[in-house]
Design goal:
Elements (H helix, E strand, L loop, with lengths): L1 H16 L9 E2 L2 E4 L4 E3 L1 H9 L2 H5 L7 E2 L5 E4 L4 E6 L6 E5 L2 H4 L20 E4 L4 E4 H9 L2 H5 L7 E3 L2 E5 L4 E4 L9 E3 L2 H9 L23 E6 L3 E2 L4 E9 L10 E8 L2 E7 L7 E7 L7 E11 L2 E11 L2
Parallel strand pairs: 15-21
Antiparallel strand pairs: 1-2, 2-3, 4-5, 5-6, 6-7, 8-9, 10-11, 11-12, 12-13, 14-16, 16-19, 17-18, 17-20, 20-21
């Protein structure tokens, strides 16, 4: 409780000391750059991507577009995969969502009752083309996001997968999130990420790219990583402390404010560390004097950058 109150006080103090965050400018020409994952959506996919619900439904790009071994242009998103394929009629190309639900083995045998397909019941819609029904909140999401035309037909019923209720469709999976706020209980599952991990593509394709010229890179998350020079020190020693702050793409964050709280046996000390440098690093020395051997020293790092905050903890022992 005391540490929570200390953190809240530090956040308020740090917030007053920092300037407002810059406005993002993520669009560059016909490309759309997403700092959330460090990738740009291929311009050839942009119209379809926005028409099918954008990042809210399909997730952020996980890769740049690339050609696979069959010469197919594709781009992985968190929840889906976009492909550029020949039109069924004509000589042009069209964008489609890959049938990842089918590829990932999400299908079940069609539902039958007494040898006859079930009829629609309250809150449900049965799709005879695939022999499965969609119900309640899943059905609401399905209809609102394009139904069979966009997401494909249902290929399973509700099922428990791990600790979550899910339902597979030809091109996507919907997951039930009862812990989410009202209206967000049904969310697309990360099929794009799961399939990429299984497909055997070069993991370097996931590496974030620098933003295009003219785009302001926006930080959406902070990942501080502390370290101490020596895990065991004497009661009259000097300890070296380091903290590296990276963002959602593991890019160093420069200019982050960092407050250090040191919990010593004799009480706590609070000090402001230098702002993180171009490598996302800040450091400090902690002079120990007369601390009792055998005690543990806890370190709390409070990090604030723009409107984001994060906490990290480390510790060491006074051994002799």
């Amino acid at each position: 409780m005391i540490r929570s109150m200390i953190r809240l006080t530090l956040l308020l103090a740090l917030g007053l000391a920092l300037a407002a965050s810059p406005l993002p400018a993520l669009a560059q020409g016909s490309r759309l750059y997403f700092a959330e994952t460090g990738h740009s959506l291929d311009a050839r996919f942009l119209e379809a991507f926005e028409g099918w619900g954008g990042a809210e439904a399909l997730g952020f790009p996980l890769t740049e577009s690339f050609y696979n071994e069959d010469g197919l242009l594709l781009q992985y998103l968190e929840n889906a995969r976009l492909e550029l394929v020949p039109e069924e009629l004509g000589e042009g190309l069209q964008v489609q969502l890959a049938p990842l639900g089918v590829i990932m083995g999400g299908w079940d045998l069609p539902v039958e009752q007494g040898g006859l397909p079930p009829a629609d019941r309250a809150g449900c819609r049965f799709y005879p083309q695939s022999g499965h029904q969609v119900c309640h909140a899943f059905l609401d999401y399905y209809r609102e996001h394009g139904g069979p035309q966009v997401l494909g037909l249902p290929i399973s019923e509700f099922r428990l997968q791990g600790d979550r209720i899910v339902q597979y469709f030809e091109r996507i999976r919907l997951d039930w999130h009862p812990e989410a706020s009202v209206g967000g209980w049904v969310q697309p599952g990360p099929l794009g990420r799961e399939h990429f991990d299984l497909a055997g593509y070069d993991p370097a394709l996931l590496d974030p790219k620098r933003p295009p010229a003219g785009a302001v890179y926006q930080v959406f998350a902070l990942h501080p990583q502390p370290s101490v020079w020596k895990p065991l020190v004497s009661s009259e020693d000097v300890q070296q402390l380091h903290l590296v702050v990276r963002d959602q793409n593991m890019v160093p964050v420069a200019g982050a404010a960092v407050m250090l709280t040191v919990y010593l046996p004799e009480g706590l000390q609070i000090q402001m560390l230098p702002s993180t440098d171009g490598d996302g690093i800040t450091q400090a020395e902690l002079v120990l004097s007369g601390q009792p051997p055998g005690s543990r020293v806890d370190l709390d790092f409070t990090v604030l950058y723009q409107d984001l905050s994060a906490f990290a903890r480390d510790s060491f022992f006074i051994w002799w």
